[in-house]
Amino acid sequence: YHVRETERGFLSQFEAIVGGRREAAIPVVDVDDIPLEADYHETDEDEVLEEFHYLRRRTTYMLWDLRESDWQRAGIHPYRGRVTLLELTREMYQHDLEHLWQVRRMVEALTSPAR
Question: pTM, whole model, 2 decimals?
Answer without folding.
Answer: 0.85
